Amino acid sequence: MRTLGGSMFKQIAKGEKRRAQVELFGTAIILVLLVLIATFAVRFSIGPKSLAEKTELKESIIANNAFNALFKATLCGKQMQELIIQCYFEPNAECGCEFVKQELEKIGQTVGYEYEFSATANKGVYLEQNFCTGDSKIAASPYKTSQNSILFEFTFRLCGINIH
Fold it and tell me: Above 60 in pLDDT, residue 72?
């Protein structure tokens, strides 16, 4: 009888072990499904939802690219960013404020976009150019830097741009 009871106990133990494995496997499948559902939910809730949002994103990218190109233009052996800062310290220099204003206008005509630009030093505007004729404006991310303990901020907006 000992053998009979021992083998029954082993069969019961095997059955419980197998059931525990099946339950564990089922739990793992449920967890994987939950992770997949959560991933898709996050993906679709974060991404652009409408054509208007996608268009706004494209316009913002174009505005930022145009702003970066403007700042990287080299004139008088310096980048435009340096010349604009120099305009604050030496407005009457050879490549001073008047020169920068003229070049900003030429660049705008060459690129074919209307835009407005402003440069501030410690929150006071010292250089401003506005070539916009319409109200629709797309702002690039403002650029900030400091020199000689003065905080400079440059803003740039494209105007009248239509992307579909």
Answer: yes
